[in-house]
Structure formats: structure tokens, C-alpha cells
Amino acid sequence: xxxxxxxxxxxxxxxxxxxxxxxxxxxxxxxxxxxxxxxxxxxxxxxxxxxxxxxxxxxxxxxxxxxxxxxxxxxxxxxxxxxxxxxxxxxxxxxxxxxxxxxxxxxxxxxxxxxxxxxxxxxxxxxxxxxxxxxxxxxxxxxxxxxxxxxxxxxxxxxxxxxxxxxxxxxxxxxxxxxxxxxxxxxxxxxxxxxxxxxxxxxxxxxxxxxxxxxxxxxxxxxxxxxxxxxxxxxxxxxxxxxxxxxxxxxxxxxxxxxxxxxxxxxxxxxxxxxxxxxxxxxxxxxxxxxxxxxxxxxxxxxxxxxxxxxxxxxxxxxxxxxxxxxxxxxxxxxxxxxxxxxxxxxxxxxxxxxxxxxxxxxxxxxxxxxxxxxxxxxxxxxxxxxxxxxxxxxxxxxxxxxxxxxxxxxxxxxxxxxxxxxxxxxxxxxxxxxxxxxxxxxxxxxxxxxxxxxxxxxxxxxxxxxxxxxxxxxxxxxxxxxxxxxxxxxxxxxxxxxxxxxxxxxxxxxxxxxxxxxxxxxxxxxxxxxxxxxxxxxxxxxxxxxxxxxxxxxxxxxxxxxxxxxxxxx
Length: 571
Known about the structure:
By secondary structure, the protein is of the alpha/beta class. The protein is 38% helix and 17% strand.
């Protein structure tokens, strides 16, 4: 059984017949018990320093010693990741989500640290480094190891190496248990010097909320970490509004606040390297954040993560390593950011260079070398949907909130002034690009029609293109759309869209484009490549669709008549 499997097996044994998470106090005891045994067996000086003892009741749970033995045989950075991730598996999911308790595997930590070393122009062993969410020491541990190694190569004594780590490293962690793990695993990285000096340094790792902790401005050279990804509640936004208003629009995410504060903490020329969700790149809600970043820093590099499952234990999230260098007066700004992808075992493949716009505009980021050409389309003067007289509307019927009655059949056509109109679900959109109203029977057999009055302003009465609002990067296409023809509209008079559907609607006389051909163009491979450069989440949003460059539809029609295939004609 591998180490990850043994941890999961032990977690199941701890829970027994219960399906709920273990309470926080028990989870803390379990982790401290494992840490106590690990230190006693491998790092006796640290065991004496912490003075913690394993809990006998926990030791008796089947699988306990397998976990302790596995951790003891691992590299310390991997052991830190496994133990902190184990803690996150024990606590309730709600708290894990609220506090962003997900952890960075050591190979990825090493990748982020390499980006720091490339971007930072000074001596990293003298740099003041802070991790704003130090978790299980995923970044502070490697930082301590790097400082020790650099100073050892220069012949600097162990006592000075320990003092440097004590003075220059700082960690902030909102969870006390994880804060203690951060400290313990940093000390493990320094243990050869600790054993030589018989002295344990006092590290600056504290239990606190980074966003409310007071620091001196520009007091660090490097900020490195994996901040929590979570949208703030309305009350949280109000609490942070005064200090973090510059990066807010349409709601804030915790990681955006971490970016803003991190840029305020580093000195000019200092480096910030954080793992962030790819939704930053193009999401309308992050326009102010993109503008703030471009006004305060150069984007040195962006490394997107293509393999979401397995990079983080128990989480699926499209993410990226964002490395920024704070602007320094008199130093010329960078023109391009280096783009790469983190793939299997967190190895990096270079993609190319990308010029990012300043201000609020989306960042168009190719994920592969093949997409570099598609990304360049956004810099050209090409038509968009608005140029074709097309507006984008999101389906107005939210299935679990809309109060209008729903039915399985059209009959009776009218009763008490209420008429039944068809409801367009995402299931109506076929993978082959065809529209099939009857397909929704499998998902919502009793909700095919909506009862409303003929004067309902949300009713749609023209041909349109229906687009699924969600898709993911593993699917063969990101855009799935289908043409709703005039025969369907004539049969039913009007229709409504469900909230998981976007509808492209021609606006009056300004629209002369062939909607059926436009739907085929949107379903094509070249447009898919362009959209993948633009989208950083599973959403196919109105905002992203409005920014999508399109070919001249008449030119596509001409090439089709000349015998080109659709993809060739569009390209």
C-alpha cells in the first residue's frame, strides 16, 4: 500500500462507521500524535523542544503505525505535504472550503521556488521571505533548505545559518494546527545545523489572518504561497472594503486580496509568486484585479496547470503559478510574460511569450504551443458578435428558484391567460451541433414547458443560437452550440431559456448574418482554440463570448463554396 492509500485507510478507520468528519479537537490530537512519534523517532532534539506525546487511544487505531512509518521514510517536504493533507481530510468539508485548507505538493512547491529564483535579482539567502498562508510549510520548508544550502556553500557557520533563517523567514497561517506543522517542518529542514549547534532557533511563524495582520509596507523581498480560492460573502466584502477596494468589482475572491496585499508588502524589484485560479485571466469579476496588477507589477511568468486532478490532493481546480515583479522606478517595464504549462509530475513545458494588456482587459493565455497562433487573433481587428448585431442573453429561468409553473406537455395551450412555452435546457444542445427540444425529456421530463403570460418580457421570439454555459478543458470542445430555427419559433410562438444556457439573439435590422452558419463556426476547432486561450474556468460566460474574435462569415461561406472543409474555411 502506498503512503497516500495508507493515510486514507487510517482516516477511514478513525471515522469507523461514522460518515461525518472528525471534530476539530480530535483531528488536532491525531495530527499531533503522529508528529510526536515522527519527531521522537527521527528528530529527538525537536521532540524534546515540543514536549508533545502521542495519544495511546489514537495509536491503537489500525493503520496508525503504517502512517508514521511511511512518513518517517519520506523526504521531509513530502512528509509535510502528506501530514497536512491528512489533517484536511479529517476536518469537515465546510471548514476546509472556508479557510482554503488545500496543500501544495512538494514538486509544485519546487517549481514555484524556481520561478522565484529566476525572477529575483538579489541573493535569495539574504532575502526576507514571507508565506501568507504557510499551511504545512510547503514553501517555508524549501526556503529554509535553500538558505541553509546557499550559506553552507559559502562556508558560513551553522549558527549564522540558523540565525538567518530565524530573521528572514516569516509565515502566517490562520489555522493553529497547520501553523505548528509549518514550524516543525521548517525546523526539520534545518535539523543538521540544529543538531550541530544543539540550539533550536525561534522562527517567525504565527497563527493569524494574513489579511488583517499589520506589516510595514515594502518590508519583504519575496512573497510566495498558495492562497485560498474562495468567493467572499457580502459581510466579508464589507469588512475588507476599506483596505481592499482597489481590486473589487462584482464580488471578490480571497486570492485577489492576497495578491493586492502581497504587492504592497514587497519592495520595488521584489517578487510575488502565488498559485492562483486561472479565472483571473479573463473573468469579468477580476477586471479590477488585472488592472491593479498591471499598475503595480510586471508579469514575469504564468505557468498554467493542465492536470488538475492529482496535483492537489482531493481538489479539482484549474490553477496557475503567477510570478510578478514589483515595478521599480527607472527600470524599464517588461514587454512579454513567459508562458508555460505544468504537466505530469509538475514538469514544465515552455509555450512561448505573450504580451499582456494593461488595465482591465482579459489576459489571453495559450495553454499549448499550438494555441499561440490562436492567441494572436485577439490582437487583430477581427469581428465579434456585437459587430454582427448579436446580443448575448443568459437563460432567465433558474430551475430551483423560478416561481413560474412548469409542465411536461404543451396542452392546454392557454388557460386563465397563462400560455405554456417551451423551455430550452442545455440538454437540447447536441454534441454534434444540432438542436433537439425532445432531448430535455431525459433530464427534466416534467419541466419542458413554462407557464407565463404572452406579454412576459423574457420571452424570446426569434431564431437564435443556444450555447451551453459550462464545459471543461477535458472535453473535445469548450463551446457547444446549436441553431434554433424559425420553424421552432413559429410552432410555439416564443420560448424561454434555462439558466445554464446562453442565447445569441439577433438585434433588429443590424443583423444580416446567417445564424446557422455562425453556429457551425462557433462549434469549429479554430474558434475552440481561441476560446481556450481566453477562458480560465468551466464557465462559458457572456463576457468571454463577447470578446471572442470571429472570422468574416461571408469569407467562410465563400471558402465553403470553393470546397474547403469547415475548419479549414474558418482558419
